[in-house]
Amino acid sequence: MDDQTRIMHALGGVGLGVQGGVQGGMQGVQVAMHGHEGADGDARKQDIGDILHQIMAITDQSLDEAQAKKHGLNCHRMKPALFSVLCEIKEKTGLSIRGAQEEDPPDPQLMRLDNMLLAEGVSGPEKGGGSAAAAAAAAAAAGGASDNSIEHSDYRAKLSQIRQIYHTELEKYEQACNEFTTHVMNLLREQSRTRPISPKEIERMVGIIHRKFSSIQMQLKQSTCEAVMILRSRFLDARRKRRNFSKQATEILNEYFYSHLSNPYPSEEAKEELAKKCSITVSQGVGSTITVSQVSNWFGNKRIRYKKNIGKFQEEANLYAAKTAVTAAHAAAVQNSQASSPSTPNSGFQMKDEEFQLDSAESKNSLLTNMFTGGYPTACYQSDSRIQ
């Protein structure tokens, strides 16, 4: 019995009953627990108290003390017997929970987030995914407007920034998860030298850790998806709702812009007048109206595009200048003809506006040439109102 007590104290309070050696592990424990009475029973109670006291004092031990205890346990001659007993206990208690831990199916919400991030070009390898998604959405939204490149580049820059933040945070998450998983695996492998731990149990513990960390991953992906949706609503969805002006409305706005090129900032009254003219033109086409805010936005975008590429728009400016000159000359000619016509009804001659209308076969260039070279026919009457 003295040998049994000495073994129990050396193992840190783990009592093993020894009767003619260790026989069958659990059988020895039962003999030790139930084979003696009297003073031996009091000694067992004292041993259990010592065991509980040592267990409660583990957290107060220093690292050196813990290492010394572990080394003493590993070198003890009764360690194989202890390990055998623990294996039998685990075999009996583990039958009820065997197979209870099944592999969980993948989270459908996490799969939806992954699919969205992949479709938007945020996750996965960057092989033009984000740019391609932005280009496809922009092409479908605006249909080749001249300011597409500016808005498209802004969209790609914002999407690239979101992608960079996402991958940085995902890398931090994966690093923290891997570090914690490695620490737990090393701890379990170290404990497997004293108590039975199978590789499958280690894998199960790793799965539990990953499920705990998946909530952080889901929060990160959900925040990234929300940022992408906000970006789409600002740069793409708004452009889908926007309708381009009709050709006639664009002509009206361009005429005003190039006729006031020195100061292309229309007043509020001018904007309202232009909006009315454009609304009349558009209502004849698709039945929609143009607001003053849309006119202001058009002039703002037009000024930006004109400043960025003056050479490209110079030709357009010349065309509208020539058109304005033709219109002004035509109006002046009509006004002069009406002012020079005789006031008496029996004068025998009256000028009509139709005589100054541009014939469909006559070009604008020929009209300009006639006006500035004197080739256009003048009124055929003298100051005394007698017909020549």
TrEMBL record:
GO terms for cellular component: nucleus. InterPro entries: HD, Homeodomain-like_sf, KN_HD, PBX_PBC_dom, TALE_homeobox. Residues 238-310 bind DNA. Keywords: DNA-binding, Homeobox, Nucleus. Signal peptide: none annotated. Its main location: nucleus. Residues 236-309 form the Homeobox domain. GO terms for molecular function: DNA binding; DNA-binding transcription factor activity. Residues 43-237 form the PBC domain. It is found in: Nucleus. Pfam families: Homeobox_KN, PBC. SUPFAM superfamilies: Homeodomain-like. Belongs to the TALE/PBX homeobox family. This is Pre-B-cell leukemia transcription factor 3-like. It comes from Scleropages formosus.
